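fwd from M.: "can u put these together and see what the complex looks like"

so here's what she sent:
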Amino acid sequence: MDIVKSVQNYINKMVNEVTGMKVLLLDSETTPIISNVMTQSSLLSHETYLVDRIDNKNRDRMRHLKCICFIRPTSETIQMLVEELRDPRYGDYYLYFSNTLSKSSIERLAEVDEHEVVREVQEYFADYCAINPDFYSLNLSLPQYRLYGDSQNTWESKTFQRVIEGVLAVLLSLKKKPLIRYEKMSVMAKALAEEVHYSIQKEGELFVFRPTDTPPILLILDRRNDPVTPLLSQWTYQAMVHELLGIHNGRVDLSDVPDIRPELKEIVLSRDQDPFYKKNMYLNLGDLGANIKSYVEEYQAKTKSSINIESIADMKRFVEEYPEFRKLSGNVSKHVALVSELSRLVEKETLLEVSELEQSLACYGQHSSDLKNLQKLIANPKISEDSKIRLVSLYSLRYEKSPNNDVISLIELLRRNGVSEDKISFIGSIMEFAGSDQRQDDLFSNESLLSFGKNVFKGLKGVENVYTQHSPHLSQTIELLVKGKLKETSYPFIEGSTKDRPQDIIIFMVGGVTYEEARHIAQINASAAGFRVVLGGTTVHNSVSYLNEIQDAFYRFPSGGGTGARLARFSKPRNGY
Amino acid sequence: MSSISDSNSLSNLTMLSNSLPANNSHRESLIFDDSSSLEQLACPICNEQMVSLLQLNRHLDDEHMDTSIDQKDGIIKWFKNAQSTIMKPLSKTKNNISQLAMNKFNEFDINGLDKQSEFVTKAHWKQDVENIVCSNSACEKSLNIINGKHNCRKCGEFFCEDHCRLSMKLNRQAQHDPVNGYFCRVCDDCFVSREGYLDTEGVTRSCTSIFIKYRTKGIERAHLEGNRLEQRLEKLAKVYITQIKQVNSTQGGLAPPLTAKHRRRVSEQSIVKWQDDASVTNCPLCRTSFGKITNRKHHCRLCGRVICEKCSSKIPLNLNNYSEVADQDSIGEIRACKECRSAVFRRKEYNEEIAKTPPVVMLYQKLTKIRSAIDSTLPKFQDMLIMLKSKEIINQTHADYQLAARSRKELLDNFAQFDAISKRINSLLTYSESERRLQSNIHLAANQYLQQNMLPLSVLPKMFKKDQTQNTNGQQYGYFDDDDDSSEAIPAFAAFANGRPRSLSMSSTKSVKEEEQLRQQLEAFLEQEKRLEEFIQEATRKRKFDDLKTLKTSLDEIKLEIDKKRKELGDLWP
């Protein structure tokens, strides 16, 4: 179950299908799918010399090229392809579709192919972005794709269709016909589970695989069951870069970084191409700092040896090592720039202090000290508004049911410190959206006496790193699942059931996943405990994108009302005074 | 009495809490549910009474280890029954099992996995010997009570607890069988290497045949339409010809041109019926409205429709329309609408366009040919080197050595040619941005290929060299051996490596061989000079000034060396 390899396999098969000079024609959705797993040079080595978009109308006519089309079949792209085939710009066409192609689409395409340029028509189910070998995303983000329909329990229909197809593609590319389980509280998870199940039945001929020891499990979860994880500051490399700078299809935009060198304005983070990144992506900033230091030293040692060219032999060696050396030098400056930018941001926004309180709120919570710290941080002008909002949100999620919670005065404090009303309204949104009435599991382990005791114990035990204590709710769910202890009452099966410990688990999270969860999954898989997990979701969130998605949804919900209505819940007690 | 019952219930509790998870995790036991109950536990072979499954197991192991398969089948059948008896009270959480059995069940919990393996053959297990270590390549633990000692039920090797804790389903022959197998303890390797486990080939589905089926239908229709129009075109051509002839024959009389035009129009309409002017107000293709002066009405001579000026064009009339060349003895022009025009000419134009081969295609074909030649000789050459090394062939007159030398020469020639062609492709004239991109990308890919394959090759001769200098102190050889004396492998010359580049000792008389050698060296230096210059250009472009400095020093050095060589050669041949 290595989804990066699965996607790479598909693409290699496409570009190896035919020899000769080739052009690769993509659409807006298949471009990120490919750019996440392939590099320019690997495409070049397969004689794919040009890459272009099918929606680019100004492509030149080059009949001596063979054209590999990799297209997500939608009505728009089929129309573009029809126009392309009517007046073919290239010699031969090899059409690959990232999902099932309807009969009528085949017919339409066949009708216009008067020059008989099409050689192959295939369905290759690489219909998702593979980020890590065990982590994928459907890249459904605003504004192109909205998740929620007209309430927090309904799908936007276009997105829903895309998600069903995406999940099916994941299953087909991994060759799994799973039993489907879903989170019972989530209406959207249930709808998706049913629809995926129906599609598997419908496409029965595709889902014929060799039997497995235990049936694979597709577990459909809802982000709303764990609103905490995307709100936390991150300290491991991959997660931190996404939280502070944003990783978009493996690329990081550094153009806003002060004094950045022009070639580093946009950098690529690729596990395959960058051994340093691969080694360090799950390490926290402390370990990362040490590693980057030794990386720089290694580089300096190499530079020294190459400066020291005194004989032809030295020079010849240098010339041989030069490409390698150049690559290293580029990589070193890339990571140094990235890490120094991260530490600059941490310093600037006093994120260490923020994170300490976040972790305390997320993991154990001692009300009086938390409140005191929170008030102190809100008053601190160095801390960004977004951080303050995140902190108060965490506070209100954590102490929602606590009788002496003081959200109202905190909101008042936010106002007094100049935080905009617009941002403050998020606190109301998230409570409406993922308050304890909306969640099915005991997220903070504070609802039963037993788990409360466990919690206190956890606090006493002491931790290695104050900033990375939190472990996402997801890891607990997986632990229960592989032990066969995940309750059917809260995670029912769509059809069938098994008590076997699953060996292959595919998770899809409605509402987005985080890199923190990706790291936990990677750790679970590395432990090789006899089961494999692949995690994915509608998108990969950081706190900003998560906030935006919820805010966008609430502005549109007819039931949501204005900011005032959502904040009303906090002012009720005050009216009572 | 009460104290006993207390302890009873207590142990019942512990038993339950212990065995329940086991029951969950090894649910295969449910497979056996259908069998009838059997009250007693007795060995099926010797009928000895047993108190527990575990005891029975041990008994079977000890006493009946070598029973044949037939008997084993019997055992299994019986075993199922026995097990269901035992499991039943447990699943109903009744407390009527004897204290002894309960204690044993606690063990069953731990050994549950191994229990299942009893069905699976042990014939392939490795023999237990003293001081064995875990067979996992990354683990060197000696196997004992603390580290555990287990046979992987599939491969039979010994492993420690940590490397033999996974479970997969095996059949009685210890082969993987996900449907009818039993969960057995296996090692990591067996777990991972089962069929399909590491498969990364996703599902694909081909729609090509359906596509072609649909296309064939459509193509036939289009061809029919095309043929029909072509026939009309031919008829029109014939009409024109006869009219021209008539005009020629009646040259004497002054036939007013208007009538000629009129006659032609009539004959045109006899082939294709024209649409009535009055019935059309807008052009059917572009929807612009017709006017009396501004946007006049025209008729397509092929389909007869009324069409505007913009949507129609004049097409040439040929007598033999099927000929490949369009502008051959054209006898006139007729107006045709866009659609008819493309229906008639599309195929022809497309084929013409396809037939044109731009220069880049030819060069690229050459490039591919060379590349495939390199791809086939390179591995052979590397094998040869390994062979030479292993046989310690150092004599240059040896046939194998000569062969290797030849193939290396061939490779280098091919690389040089490859490089040259790729550069030529890059410098070809281009007419569009895409062509520019295509050509520079081909060049880029070729450079990539050279970097991957040629630079490692230049390291290889060192091995040659090493053997040579160490043993025979023989002469130089080939292309890249310029660094001969300072080769790091030879301590005697290590001093040179830190010193100045060594110039060849000058002797007043030089053999032809030496001269040849010098030439080769010079050639190598020139090649390097060229390469360095490229690197410098690249470094300048990428603004890597650190690299640039070192590169420039290197270049100066090599230029010095080239001058020296030239002088030497010059001395030789004034």
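replying to her w this: Chain B touches chain A through 96 residues (CB under 8 Å).
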